[in-house]
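Blinded run. Sample ID left blank on purpose so nobody reads anything into the name before looking at the predicted structure. Input follows.
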Amino acid sequence: MVRRIVWDKEAILQMEEVYKYLKESSLQSANKVRKSIKEKTNDLSKNPEIYPLDRFIKDNDGSIRAFETYSYRITYKVKETEIIIARVRHTSRKPIEF
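Blinded prediction complete.
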């Protein structure tokens, strides 16, 4: 079953901030990181369980997972028909709970 990828509004804003920040130093790096995140999130539609459960979520019911790329942690929620990209945060930042 292929699930639809949906970006939460907050995650979209976070991704835009990441891109703007990286672009200040290097447009090439900003594009590389954005492309990596987009590719990995798009791959979730076919195999959402590829990444482990998010260890920072208390009482995770098994639907919240996360992966890291280029020092950014992407948190997502697996639902029956869609994958919700919930958060994009730098790994040096303190985790926050859902």
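Unblinding after everyone has recorded impressions. The chain has one domain: 4-90.
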